[in-house]
């Protein structure tokens, strides 16, 4: 896939997980629709595992979107009382089928596992398991967690989880399925989201509440950092394995990753993003004629900017919603129009206008540069770029692909230099204080390392250098 056609030039989405214990329900179908709602968290592979209580786990996973991997026949071939689901994004080159999830292992105990996050001490854990003679089928850090649990001698899976959880470093919102229960746990810092829901008198867990909405489940609460929740025939039980760690929820979930209709910490993200737009208008007003969004991620913030500034707002681009990952390359003749396959500017709207263009974030800047050029070609008189995140200058060690430092457009550049590099008349990045004010949360309980370089989770030297780490073992993120 070319850069021009890749899903976006921003931070890459991560993974989505789902688990349900619901005898009497069509659990594979519920998992399918939940994954469908979580598709924005990963477009590279999808998988569902099911089992009857006390039966054998069946897993079906493949490369592609949820709708490409599953059809009616495949869903019918997955009967059961429990289901586990996963959608995944990973860096290029790690897209092999073996890395699709759920991971299945049956060493000492049979289990399937779905993971969202990134282990920063994966290399150490991997060598320790290899020394114990444990074989691996994938290069995913998720299989390390699965292997630690599947080979564990403890009689109860929850005891195995409680034993290994303090040894895992990094981000891990994880759901496991054994033949008779679903066990969900979250890292002590709570970097990635994980929500608990209820459907009828049964329970389920999902990365985001939008996956609960689609299957008619009710959001009960979030799984707490360091908490282990069991869902089985007895209902629900919970234990806190690690309490009191510094909380470090990813602030980027609010800015871009999570769906706007998801609720996190009681906040609907659409509302938070609208307030980010309002903050942008307050921090960086500009004499302009029209506010437009880079669709769809910039939409709520563009509305917020227009609201706060009193400027009119319109659609400057039409987005083709069907440009997903495709294996058909555009070829030489069409390549120069690459981005137009996804965004087509509307000269009737932008011609002669001084535009405020609102987007959520910039990583490398290639797409943003082309967007600005397209607007100028369509007749825009001025382009003032407003971004609802601070400049990204540091890689993420907790499950998001941010490119390398050197590839980031904000690396060693001031705001003015970035504006010049992108061809914008002016540029403003929302301040970190503005981000937190818009969300209504504090820095002390969140991670903002990709903006500040202050990594909230202690880790080995490997965690400070993504590439040293990946060279040691070509691990992929979930
Ligand atoms: S480094 Fe950035 S993307 Fe990664 S967890 Fe922290 S805030 Fe989120």
How many structurally independent domains?
2
Radius of gyration from the alpha-carbon trace, in angstroms: 22 Å
The CATH architecture category of the largest domain equals 4-Layer Sandwich
Q: Regions with pLDDT < 50 over 5+ consecutive residues?
A: 1-7, 460-471
Strand content: 15-25%
So what's the CATH class of the largest domain? Alpha Beta
Given helix and strand content, the structural type is alpha+beta
For the termini, the CA-CA separation is 20 Å
Q: Care to count the β-strands? A: 23
What number is the mean pLDDT? 90
- The shape is elongated
Instruction: Identify the CATH homologous superfamily of the largest domain.
Output: Aminohydrolase, N-terminal nucleophile (Ntn) domain
Tally of individual helices:
18
Percent in helix: 25-40%
The largest sheet is:
7 strands, antiparallel
CATH topology of the largest domain: Glutamine Phosphoribosylpyrophosphate, subunit 1, domain 1
Main sheet: strand order: 3-2-4-1-10-9-11
Q: What is bound: which ligands?
A: iron/sulfur cluster
């Amino acid at each position: 896939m070319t850069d021009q056609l890749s899903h976006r030039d921003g931070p890459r989405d991560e993974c989505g997980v789902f688990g349900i214990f619901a005898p009497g329900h069509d659990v594979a179908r519920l998992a399918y629709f939940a994954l469908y709602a979580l598709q924005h968290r990963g477009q590279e592979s999808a998988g569902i595992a099911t089992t009857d209580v006390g039966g054998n786990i069946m897993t079906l996973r493949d490369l592609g979107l949820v709708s490409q991997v599953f059809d009616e026949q495949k869903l019918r071939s997955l009967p059961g009382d429990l289901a586990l689901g996963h959608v995944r994004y990973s860096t290029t080159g790690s897209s092999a089928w073996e890395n699709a999830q759920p991971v299945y292992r049956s060493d000492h105990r049979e289990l399937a596992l779905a993971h969202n996050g990134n282990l920063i001490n994966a290399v150490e854990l991997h060598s320790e398991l290899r020394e114990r003679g444990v074989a691996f089928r994938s290069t995913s850090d998720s299989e390390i967690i699965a292997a630690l649990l599947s080979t564990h001698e403890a009689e109860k899976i929850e005891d195995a989880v409680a034993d290994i959880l303090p040894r895992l470093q990094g981000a891990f919102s994880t759901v496991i399925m054994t033949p008779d229960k679903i066990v969900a746990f979250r890292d002590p810092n709570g970097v990635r989201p994980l929500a608990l829901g209820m459907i009828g008198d049964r329970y389920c867990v999902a990365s985001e509440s939008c996956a609960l909405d689609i299957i008619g489940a009710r959001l009960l609460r979030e799984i707490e950092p360091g908490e282990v929740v069991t869902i089985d025939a007895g209902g629900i039980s919970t234990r806190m394995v690690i309490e009191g760690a510094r909380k470090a929820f990813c602030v980027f979930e609010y800015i871009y990753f999570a769906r706007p209709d998801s609720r996190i910490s009681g906040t609907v993200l659409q509302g938070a993003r609208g307030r980010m737009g309002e903050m942008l208008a307050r921090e960086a007003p500009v004499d302009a004629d029209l506010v437009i969004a880079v669709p769809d991620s910039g939409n709520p913030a563009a509305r917020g900017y227009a609201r706060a500034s009193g400027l009119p707002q319109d659609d400057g681009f039409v987005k083709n919603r069907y440009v997903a990952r495709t294996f058909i390359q555009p070829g030489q003749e069409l390549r120069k129009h690459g981005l137009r396959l996804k965004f087509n500017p509307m000269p009737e709207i932008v011609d002669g206008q001084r535009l405020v263009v609102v987007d959520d974030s910039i990583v490398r800047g290639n797409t943003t540069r082309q967007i600005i050029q397209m607007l100028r070609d369509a007749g825009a008189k001025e382009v003032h770029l407003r971004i609802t995140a601070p400049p990204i200058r540091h890689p993420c060690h907790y499950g998001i692909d941010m490119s390398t430092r050197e590839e980031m457009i904000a690396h060693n550049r001031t705001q003015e230099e970035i504006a010049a590099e992108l061809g914008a008349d002016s540029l403003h990045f929302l301040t970190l204080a503005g981000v937190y004010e818009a969300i209504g949360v504090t820095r002390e309980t969140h991670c903002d390392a990709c903006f500040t370089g202050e990594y909230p989770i202690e880790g080995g030297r490997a965690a400070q250098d993504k590439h040293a780490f990946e060279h040691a073992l070509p691990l992929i993120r979930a």
